[in-house]
Write a structure and sequence with these properties.
- The complex is a heterodimer.
- By secondary structure, chain A is α+β, with helices and mostly antiparallel strands.
- Chain A folds into 3 domains: 1-63 and 204-285 and 540-573, Periplasmic binding protein-like II (D-Maltodextrin-Binding Protein, domain 2); 66-188, Dipeptide-binding Protein, Domain 1 (Dipeptide-binding Protein, domain 1, Alpha-Beta Complex), CATH 3.90.76; 289-538, Dipeptide-binding Protein, Domain 3 (Dipeptide-binding Protein, domain 3, Roll).
- Chain A is 25% helix and 18% strand.
- Chain A has 15 helices and 22 strands.
- Chain A has a 7-stranded mixed β-sheet. A 6-stranded mixed β-sheet of chain A has the order 13-19-12-18-16-17. In chain A, strands 4-6-5 form a 3-stranded antiparallel β-sheet.
- Chain B has 14 helices and no strands.
- Chain B is globular.
- The chains are: A alpha+beta, B mainly alpha.
Chain lengths: 573, 318
């Protein structure tokens, strides 16, 4: 408990420290000179419609922008529009068939021409062109038309009632490109437009001056940016390539760069870099959760290929006393400390973010071995033959516990095996090469989908802020089986009528708070009824120089979403 | 009187003296070999009998006592976290490193020896047959080439896939994997031995003493066991010592990839690999298993060297 408080305190300090300075720092555009950003994956294009890579989407977000985007809390905020349309403000029609965006007046492209609804419509046509192979086509799925009644109004119509109409033109993956610039780049010609793809004209705070593929991007401040006092930096050097360790050192130890993205490194490695004293790591939390999946089917190797991990129930894991005791025996704060440090938080939930859908039903941050033992004793699951392992109806509680090969996961396995042994459950450990485990090959017995084990541990997440389709992974029909070539996302083969009915209700609901309430209930059902044991809420870790202010790490949108607000702390170099 | 008794005693001695005593005498004169033998005996006893004295469970986690440094660190760093109860220190989850080295050594040595013996047996058999019988030469050597071109990792992947569950059911998880790994390493590392032995056997076959032996009607079976094998013993010894090293190292690599033993089942190679990440902060975690592996391999090499000298009648002076 103490540890958790200390960790949260550390995270909070890091998160809020720059904010304290934010208001005090105003001034003219370009006052702070140059900012240097390093991404250890190098951008190869600045057109996110032709590349789904995070590095390309994020680098282009310095230049081109969407109509609305997500803030670090996962809430929608207007960006190039006056307000986010909802049913209550009339922006979304009652029948959920269309959404109307009102563009803010006076926004200019970096070449000085006005930003209009025609550009928005053009972006839709560009991406949905049948020959284009647009990387962000899913954003426009279900859109029947985009209309422009006037220069500042965009009406997006859908084929079916859409309770969550914020796919198109929202977030860093769906920015607006300039119609005039890309007019000759439609369809099959899109990849040939090198000049456009490497130097798009945008509404964002910076303009590309030089783009070297897979290496360096040079940018300068946009003279026509809507806020005359922003950006604070006159130029940006965006370096790509290397590895996470080198990037982390460049920011925190040597100070060559101001911002390093996505440092997936062990907590003690990060700590040793931080000791360099020139920068600090910042953590942001999306919905990524490390969890133990409980097999709801019987994985007995003596069953035939058609029955193994298909027929229900599991000999003992379906008993609430068993899986609840297994969960109680786990010391989650210790797991966080050992495995993720600042980039991890204790969670009892499958969907811990965004904040609105994070259920507070369960508490699990205190290990309770005695309580777990008592629970098993009370359920009549006791050690009858004196070998130290409990039996349920004569079946000993021996579990095969598999995961992918990864130093942190093997540490988790060792710790959890130890705790389970203290409550009379024996675990046999198995680790499988990640490319096989996550490979999805129906011929291999070791994939996580096949789940030829009693419990397995891995992490999963979803894109965007709406958990509807992610929660769909708990539906009976989604269970992998030989009939589906072992495809399907319901890995634990969880099956509950009430869950399925509630999910159907979620699809019909439009109101945001109601949706969140249903999502929380769904989360509670699957955790409470033996779908999984959530362990650690994992975050993304980036680092910035001590002298760089205004950073607010955003995991729901691009990390560079507020680059216009960044500034230099201290001397104005 | 004295002279007579001495003479009779010497005669009796000579009569009773086995040729292996000569080998032993020669072996003893090789200092490196004796040191190697001493170390191998020591490390074998350390791993087998050690846990009887040092009865700490190698898998026992003690998170409060994690990252304990070895006791000698206190000599130059008075503030270091050391404990007499953990003379070699503990790892990042608080597991006792000494107990792990002992347990890991048992597995590593067992895998190394078994796989090496298997490889040497197959290699010698194939090599002698191919070298001695002209008719068998072509098919056996082409077969050797074929196996030589088999990549070990994908082969083991397939073996894992096909045999892991049946072996696990028949022998339990640890023994099943042990068999699988030993056989996997054994059948993929005999080819060098086979090639070397074949070359030596072909050269020996043309020597006068072999011709002489054949002229008195020695059958091939006797010929191989009596005249050929003792003379190719030295290359076999050399490849056996190298094979032991390779087997230990291959097993480490496999465990690291998740193809070997389960992660809670320490072997020297696995302890080494697990410690590489924190090498700069805790060098001892790499040094202990690394020393154990390299010293064992070195010891076996010296023993092989000494044995080769001892087994060679020309050096022995007979």
């Amino acid at each position: 408990m103490k540890l958790k408080t200390a960790l949260m305190g550390a995270v909070a300090t890091v998160a809020f420290a720059p904010m304290a300075f934010a208001d005090a720092h105003e001034g003219e555009r370009g006052r702070d000179g140059e900012v240097k950003i390093i991404y250890w994956q190098a951008p190869s294009i600045l057109n996110p419609f032709l590349s789904g890579g995070t590095k390309d989407v994020e680098s282009s977000s310095l230049v081109i922008e969407p109509l609305a985007r997500y803030d670090p809390q996962g809430e929608l905020i207007p960006w190039l529009v006056d307000e986010v349309p909802t049913v209550s403000n009339g922006g979304v029609s009652e029948d959920l068939m269309s959404i109307t965006w009102k563009i803010t007046e006076g926004i200019l492209w970096s070449d000085g021409t006005p930003f209009t609804s025609a550009d928005v419509k053009f972006t839709y046509e560009y991406c949905t062109h049948p020959e284009s192979g647009c990387a962000q086509a899913t954003k426009f799925e279900g859109v029947s038309s985009v209309e422009t009644p006037d220069d500042l109004t965009v009406v997006v119509s859908f084929e079916n009632p859409t309770p969550f109409p914020y796919g198109p033109f929202v977030g860093g993956e769906s920015p607006i490109i300039q119609a005039a610039q890309f007019a000759d780049c439609m369809g099959a010609r899109a990849p040939e437009c090198t000049d456009q793809n490497f130097g798009p004209i945008g509404t964002g705070p910076f303009v590309v001056t030089e783009f070297r593929t897979n290496d360096v991007i040079q940018l300068v401040a946009n003279e026509n940016y809507r806020d005359p006092n922003k950006p604070a930096f006159a130029s940006v050097t965006f370096k790509g390539g290397g590895d996470a360790t080198a990037a982390g050192r460049a920011v925190m130890e040597t100070g060559e760069f101001d911002y390093a993205w996505n440092l997936q490194l062990a907590p003690d490695v990060i700590a040793s870099m931080e000791a360099g004293g020139l920068g600090v790591p910042v953590a942001g939390f999306g919905p990524l959760v490390e969890r133990i999946m409980l097999n709801n089917t019987n994985p007995d190797p003596s069953l035939s290929a058609e029955e193994r991990s298909v027929i229900r129930p599991h000999p003992f894991l379906s008993d609430p006393a068993v899986y609840k005791a297994m969960s109680m025996a786990i010391d989650r704060p210790l797991l966080v400390e050992v495995g993720y440090g600042q980039a991890g938080k204790v969670t009892c939930n499958w969907v811990p973010a965004p904040e609105a859908v994070n259920s507070d039903t369960f508490t699990c941050d205190v290990q309770d071995i005695d309580g777990a033992n008592a629970m098993l004793d009370a359920a009549g699951i006791v050690d009858t033959d004196g070998d130290g392992i409990r039996e349920k109806d004569g079946v000993p509680l021996r579990v095969l516990y598999q995961t992918s090969t990864n130093a942190v996961r093997q540490d988790f396995q060792a710790l959890i095996k130890e705790w389970w042994s203290e409550i009379g459950i024996e675990a046999e450990l198995r680790n499988i090469d990640a490319s096989v485990f996550f490979g999805g090959d129906p011929g291999s017995p070791d994939t996580f989908q096949k789940f030829y084990a009693d419990v397995e541990m891995y992490a999963n997440t979803f894109n965007g802020t709406d958990p509807q389709s992610y929660l769909g992974n708990g539906l009976c029909a989604q269970a992998p089986s030989p009939a589906t070539q072992w495809q399907g996302e319901n890995i634990s083969r969880f099956c509950d009528e009430e869950y399925d009915a509630l999910h159907a209700q979620l699809i019909q609901t439009a109101d945001a708070s109601e949706r969140a309430a249903i999502a929380r209930q769904l989360n509670d059902i699957i955790v409470d009824r033996g779908g999984m044991i959530p362990l650690v809420h994992r975050g993304r870790l980036s680092a910035h120089a001590n002298s760089l202010g205004g950073i607010d790490l955003n995991v729901w949108d691009t990390e560079l979403w507020n680059a216009a607000d960044w500034y230099r702390i201290g001397d104005n170099r | 009187m004295t002279d007579v008794s001495l003479a009779t005693e010497t005669a009796k001695d000579e009569k009773a003296r086995n040729q292996w005593w000569d080998v032993w005498d020669q072996f003893r004169s090789h200092k490196g070999a004796m040191a190697g033998l001493f170390f191998l005996t020591f490390i074998t006893l350390f791993c087998t009998a050690g846990p009887l004295i040092w009865d700490v469970d190698p898998g026992k986690l003690d998170i409060r006592n994690k990252d304990v440094r070895p006791i000698y660190t206190a000599i130059w760093d008075g503030d270091a976290k050391v404990s007499w109860a953990r003379p070699m220190g503990t790892d990042h989850l608080g597991r006792d490193i000494m107990a792990n080295i002992m347990q890991g050594g048992r597995i590593s040595l067992a895998v190394g020896w078994t796989a090496m013996i298997l490889a040497v047996l197959i290699g010698t058999l194939v090599g002698v047959l191919a070298g001695y019988f002209r008719r068998l030469d072509w098919p056996l050597m082409r077969f050797t080439d074929l196996v030589l071109s088999l990549p070990l990792l994908p082969l083991l992947l397939v073996m894992m896939l096909l045999f892991r569950d049946p072996l696990r059911a028949a022998f339990g998880p640890e023994n099943g994997i042990f068999l699988l790994i030993v056989i996997g390493i054994g059948i993929t590392s005999w080819m060098q031995t086979a090639r070397i032995v074949r070359g030596d056997v072909m050269a020996l076959k043309e020597r006068e003493f072999v011709l002489a032996a054949r002229s008195i009607g020695t059958p091939p079976r006797r010929m191989i066991t009596r005249h050929v094998l003792p003379n190719v013993l030295s290359p076999i010894m050399v490849s056996a010592t190298l094979g032991l090293a390779t087997a230990i190292i291959t097993e480490s690599a496999l465990s690291f990839l998740g193809l070997g033993f389960p992660s809670d089942f320490p072997t020297w190679g696995k302890i080494l690999f697990d410690s590489v990440d924190r090498m700069t902060a805790f060098p001892e975690r790499v040094i202990w298993p690394g020393m154990a592996i390299s010293l064992t391999v070195l010891a076996v090499n010296y023993i092989g060297d000494g044995l080769r000298d001892a087994l060679d009648p020309r050096i022995r002076g007979l």
